[in-house]
Amino acid sequence: MRAEFIGAGGNPHGTLGWVARTSLEANSKQVSATIQKDGLAVLQYRRSIAGPIEEARAELAGADVLQLERKDNSYSMSAARFGEPFTSVQAGEIDLDDEIL
Q: Quick check: 29 and 96 in contact, CB under 8 A?
């Protein structure tokens, strides 16, 4: 996905990206790969229902290309500025079941 925020102002922690979750419940297990309006690229995940949100941040600012990949129970986020190499972070042992939203 290639994306950008439009317009100035607003919440500097506004986000856009990909989300995989087990249900539409607010406290469901989930993994998200996001670009925040302040320039951070973050992989966030909840391993259990109502559990804490954990995160891994990419060492990159200003990303506008974002990928989320699933292999079994491991997830990786790759982020880049368009035309530049990707930076990746991973999280494992996250069981979101076979079917996700």
A: yes
User: Which of the 8 DSSP states describes residue 23?
Assistant: S
- Residues 15-48: pLDDT tens digits? 899 999 999 999 999 999 999 887 789 999 999 9
- Note the pTM of the prediction, 2 decimals: 0.88
Distance CA 12, CA 58 (A): 17
Give, for 67, the enclosing helix (H) or strand (E). strand 65-71
Sign of CA dihedral 34, 61, 82, 80: negative
Give buried/exposed letters for 47-68 (b at 16+ CB in 10 A, else e): beeeeeeeebebebeebbbbeb
